[in-house]
Amino acid sequence: MDVLQAMKERHSVRSYTDRPIEGRIKDDLSSYIDDCNRDSQLHIQLVLDEPNAFDGFMAHYGKFVGVRNYIVLVGKKSPDLEERCGYYGEKIVLHAQTLGLNTCWVAMTYSKGKAKFQLNANEKLCLVIAIGYGKTSGISHTSKPREAVMRANTPPDWFLQGIDAALLAPTAMNQQKFTFTLDGNKVTAKAGMGFYSKIDLGIAKCHFELGAGAQHFQWA
After folding, report:
1. pTM confidence score
2. Spatial CB neighbours of 100, under 8 Å, sequence gap ≥ 6
3. The CATH fold of domain 146-215
4. Residue ranges of domains in the chain
5. Per-residue pLDDT of the chain (220 residues; tens, 9 = 90+)
6. Bridging pattern class, strands 178-183 and 186-191
């Protein structure tokens, strides 16, 4: 499965089996996270076989079942921290999908005080991603039409492919509050108003870039 197919097949999963992440899959995922940390200067951490973060009221309220593994998105405080966490977190999510794993972005419905992670000086926890072998593959959600999230006159095919990919991106409460504007070969991505919209923008930019092909444009 390539990353574009992973984009189409990946859906949020909240209920997991007790199958551990181990062997080649664990090594591959850990190595990919290390690569993302080097590229992003973030402090993303993979936590395995730790059930306490998703064993409280908030997790039950969020209908999470059997979560024993999660990815913690941490980085030094900066104006673009949330967007970077969204962008690189989604790269990891899509790579996990190619490995046969399921995921779910989690903002509030887990026990932050029980989660196991390292927080260094001047670092901030943005959110976590539940990961493991899902009991189901999740279900798709309705997307906005292209015209609702793009600003372009006679857009080329690569731009439309980028928009279609961005509309497959997971966003908080399926808000899809982002817009992409084309000017020549430069693309401007802007977050709308809403919960976690900067993280959503990073996720959508990751999808757009993969769908459009980075060779076709420059971020404005």
Report:
1. 0.96
2. 25, 133
3. NADH Oxidase (3.40.109)
4. 3-132, 146-215
5. 899 899 999 999 999 999 999 999 999 999 999 999 999 999 999 999 999 999 987 777 789 999 999 999 999 999 999 999 999 999 999 999 999 999 999 998 899 999 999 999 999 999 999 999 999 999 988 899 999 999 999 999 999 999 999 999 999 988 999 999 999 999 999 999 888 999 999 999 999 999 999 999 999 9
6. antiparallel
